[in-house]
Amino acid sequence: MKYNRIDIKDGIKLHTIQTDKFKTNLIAIMLTTKLDKQNVTRNALIPAVLRRGTASLKTQEEINKKLEDMYGASFDCGLDKTGDNQVLKFYIESVNDGFLPQDEENMLKISLENIFELVFNPYLENGCFKKEYVEQEKENLKQIIEGKIDNKARYALDRCIEEMYKNEPFGLYKYGYVEDLNNINEKNLYEYYINLIDQCKIDIFVSGILDNNIEEIIKNNQNINKLGQRNPEYIMPEIKPKIAQKENVIQESMEVSQGKLVIGLDLDIDNEDLRYDAMIYNTLLGGSANSKLFQNVREKASLAYTASSSYYRFKNNVFINCGIEIENYNKALDIIKQQIEEMKKGEFTEEEVENAKQGIIAAIKSIDDEQDTEITYFFGQELSKNKLELDKYMERVSKINKQNVIDIANKVSINTVYFLKN
Amino acid sequence: MQIIENSKVKEKLYIEKLENGLTIMVIPKKGIQKKYIIWGTNYGSNDSTFIVPGESEITEVPKGVAHFLEHKLFEQENGRNSLDVLTSLGVNANAYTTNNHTAYLYECTDNFYEALDEFMDYVQHPYFTDENVEKEKGIIGQEIMMYDDYPDWKVYLNALECMYHKNPVKLDITGTIETISKIDKDILYKCYNTFYNPSNMAMVISGDFEPEKLLKEIKNRLIDNKSNGEIKRIYEEEPKEIVKNKAEQNMEVSKPLYAIGIKDVPPEEKEKVKKHISIEILLNMIIGASSELYKELYDIGNSYSVPSIEYEFDKTYAHILITGQSNNPEELFSMLKKRVNNISRSGVDEKDFERIRKMIYGEYVKEYNDVTSISRMFLSDYFKGINSFDYLEEINTINVEYLNQVLKDVFKEENMIISVVRN
User: Is domain B2-233 classified as CATH 3.40.630.10?
Assistant: First the structure.
């Protein structure tokens, strides 16, 4: 694997990942802009509208036929909340020429052309987006937003985050808000899109068996060529001190047969480098089958099937998730709090720390075994201040000891306890 | 080992059936860090009535034993749990149960052979006590309740209930709180001894391996166990007809979820791959991303995402499932029936067929991108009596005439059902 990064223009970067491990080429375009209430809904709507038609393929039916004809190339759009940024993601994955009948054309080149058309050259009518497309996608997005209640465990987590980050960008729902859809029309959305394309941070990733002249192919593409240089507005993650506060307890009701308990923890760390220690802390608390939560809430007390935690490194939070019998709320909460306390007291072994490190190092080693994981990793690096090569990353993790983890544990406090019951 | 090479995806399968009946398959992947191993037994939630080899009486056990066994197998006599031991080696271990098989697996970058010691030890040494069996009932009880909150799982099970009178495929893999309450250690041992015999099992490994060396390492870790002969599985005869054509359940969802089922008869042995591919092609032509029907549904605001389509089959059942969310599932169902009728009358379009065939071919190739999907695919196909490479070859034998025939044989209105979950 060979990774290379170049500036195409100010604010527009090309990342190439030369690898022969896969049957496919994967191309990704990430548009990064700062997250705020005013734009979150418009940002969510844009990929959906772009997906509907390009200047040359005017309908989604034509687009889909084209993709099918490219041996099932898949085009996906997504939205991410990365720290205080909103990222609009576009992917195209297609089979590499080596695994296609020999008379086929250059699939990588065709894929690049198509994804650039989809993102940068939309179908227009009367100088703006097609009205019908925008109206349909508004309705579609409305249903996606309303659909957040369908997955109860995910909903509970989203609600907990929303409560913890009230009136802050990270508390926003990534798909936006129904009430903000009303004011959007094909004209103002197109104006907003033009603005976005002119000002956002653009990262293009290409992974697979690449031609030597890949940079030239991309630079010379009309859609890329017409983009101007920019000084993009996006937020580099910053470490903010966590203000100690009384823990916030919220209970809400829905039609559920199992209660969903989410606990949001603050990690008050003052140094970006401590994030690696925090990863180990999370593994020991609830990140694996050996963790305190899995062992005590599930295996010993038999209270839950899921009992885990995950670490949000851009925000320095750990979120604990548990599905429990509703009447066992207090019992489960007591056991969980006890685990957080035990971590503070250092009631775990050196060996457990070593095991946790091994697990993380194994995950780092296999980052380049999956194309999308690899792209996600390099993009994460792109958005971080301290860029770290994979081997430096492993080296850093291997240095962590028990005391480092205890230090992290003592910077942890409960911010919010959220419970979804019936 | 026997070597089967596929020139399309440029991969090799090394396969060997050992004397004790265990089948071992290795798909080497040079230069990949990740290693994946999966060991399965041809025993799933459907197998609750059977004759133990050497016995004459029929044994019937409560529903949910296969899945219960999967949970309990990790427990060891020395008081340790093998999932913990594997995790502490830095490997990622797991297990799952389906209708027809149960599988144990781990993936790792380092410590493969250290983990293999533990892995092969725990799968071959069950340790059940009254106490550890009782404790598990609480955990599985919560797993069952978690599924109760998944509307997509409910809509799926209700669809199967519409189609099947007797076949156990319609039941929850986990069993119910009531059936698992009857499980005890004797039942677990009996099922273990019957179904976890090497002759009923297969192992698949993918990663950067030297196949012969790996085979030797595996053989060294096998306990002395003989093939125990054929297990007779008893299934009540399933009528061809559906049970009812509609099911509806209320749950708190933002918009209705639907599952449309088309009941089929299990495919003929030598035709199953070809039939499976043909049905995938037909479903894409009828309601896939580029179909006229999908466009129509989108334009009238009925559906905003392409339905998932699947052909599920084994030796005793077969059905198509089309699932998704729709503002008016009943309208979608009737439009679908109309569309099937139209295509049946006109015959499938040659150009659409060629394009969709290319797409499906590309999707098959993509399966070979990572060791996880390769291993899982080879295992589950193996238990259906299929070599996964066959899909890459058989796709070229399909023509329009064959598709028209399958369309006529399978997509019959009297075999169609709809299940809906709505507010």
Answer: no
